[in-house]
Amino acid sequence: MRITFEQKNNISLQMKSLIKILVVAVVFVAVSCNKSTAPNYQFMPNMYESVGYETYGEAAFKDGLEAQLPAEGSVARGHIPFDIENSTEGYALAKETVMSPLDSTQVDLNRGKELYDIYCGICHGGKGDGQGNLVKREKILGIPSYDDAGRAITAGSIYHTIYYGKNAMGSYANQLQEEERWQVVSYVLQLKADLEN
After folding, report:
1. Strand locations in the chain, DSSP E?
2. Is 42 in the same domain as 124?
3. Alpha helices in 121-171 (DSSP H)
4. What's the CA gap between 83 and 133, in Å, rounded?
5. pLDDT tens digits for range 97-109
6. Residue 100 sits in the same domain as residue 178
């Protein structure tokens, strides 16, 4: 029996169709058997299942189960330390020696006023006369005016007080960045000059 050219083409087409059907079936079986909720095989299991440590566990801290202090001499990012200590002597030293690093072109009294109104005005008053809303409502007493001769405030004493706080006033070092503190200092000195005139 002799096979004609047309019969060969038919057989070839049938074989190609059969191969296509077989490939589709194999792919279908492979995809349908895949369990997507879990990996089939892990090449590097440590990357998938890491060892869990307790926050203050013995594996992380050999010396005990407490929070660790920062390394001595380390400085937090974005923080510029103030080299004068928080004491009466430090206040006096700052009052005498510390000057604003801002020159006249860097001082922005409008920005200083905004910051002053947010952080200082509630107690010290909008004019620096010690008559803020909390003083008027008698929540805090004894806030002196900036032009009080007994205080004789300077840029250094104002900065020291903003950085460390004084008496009932707390520190604003965390709320104000260094440049913002100096803007407030400039504005307070302007309020003092306005009160004295």
Report:
1. none
2. no
3. 121-124, 133-136, 155-164
4. 34
5. 999 999 889 999 9
6. yes
**Mean pLDDT, the chain, integer:** 83
At residue 166, the 3 state secondary structure works out as: strand
Residue 46 pLDDT class (50, 70, 90 cuts): confident
Residues 127 and 192 placed together within one structural domain of the fold: yes
Looking at the structure, do residues 171 and 96 belong to the same domain, yes or no? yes
What is the Cα–Cα distance from 84 to 67, expressed in whole angstroms?
A: 28
For residue 27, what pLDDT band results from cuts at 50, 70 and 90?
Answer: confident
User: Is 92 found in the same domain as 42?
Assistant: no
Which domain does 107 fall in, by range?
88-196
- Report how far residue 12's alpha carbon sits from residue 185's, in angstroms, rounded to the nearest whole number: 92
Contact 158, 128 (CB under 8 A): no
